[in-house]
């Protein structure tokens, strides 16, 4: 059976939509991450607007969420809170010494995969 690739999305950025005349607003994604499915099944790690100020708590959660990350086939797509993205990349570097990261290329209109070697 072939290995199933995954894209670990740290967080999907959201924006508030609605709210006319004092009514409730809702959070809606501010980016379309569907093009990243070219590199595997999407797995969103943290909900929108979640942020951390205690690095040990965040590191523990990231270690857990990345427990089945396979550095040979999976990718990380750091989005949203920079602290979350940086922590996840640091963990992957420490754990494996290398990993794939996705970056949006606006000229090509698609994600590109780059290998990070620590």
The coarse overall form would be globular
Flag low-confidence runs: none
Strand arrangement in the largest pleated sheet? 4-1-5-6-7
The percent range for strand residues is 25-35%
For the biggest sheet, the summary is:
5 strands, mixed
- Structural class, judged by helices and strands? alpha/beta
Q: Give me the number of helical elements.
A: 2
Oligomer type: single chain
- Assign a percent range to the helix content: 10-25%
> What value does the Rg take, in angstroms?
16 Å
The average pLDDT is 90
Task: Calculate the terminal CA-CA distance, rounded to whole Å.
Answer: 30 Å
Write down the secondary-structure element order: EEEEHEHEE
Quickly count the domains: 1
Task: State the total count of DSSP E strands.
Answer: 7
How would you characterize the overall build of this protein?
The chain is α/β, with parallel strands linked by helices and 118 residues long. The chain has one domain (6-13, 28-117). Helix content is 22%, strand content 35%. It contains 2 helices and 7 strands. It has helices spanning 55-65, 82-96; strands spanning 6-11, 14-18, 25-29, 41-46, 75-77, 98-105, 110-117. Strand 6 (98-105) and strand 7 form a beta hairpin. Helix 1 (55-65) crosses helix 2. The model has no long low-confidence stretch (mean pLDDT 90).
């Amino acid at each position: 059976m072939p290995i199933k690739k995954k894209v670990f999305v740290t967080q999907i950025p959201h924006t508030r939509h609605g709210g006319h005349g004092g009514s409730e607003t809702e959070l809606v994604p501010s980016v379309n991450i569907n093009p990243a499915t070219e590199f595997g099944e999407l797995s969103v790690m943290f909900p929108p607007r979640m942020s951390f100020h205690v690095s040990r708590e965040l590191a523990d959660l990231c270690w857990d969420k990345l427990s089945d990350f396979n550095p040979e086939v999976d990718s990380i797509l750091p989005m949203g809170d920079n602290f979350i993205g940086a922590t996840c990349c640091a963990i992957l570097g420490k754990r494996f010494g290398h990993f794939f990261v996705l970056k949006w290329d606006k000229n090509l209109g698609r994600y590109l995969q780059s290998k990070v070697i620590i």
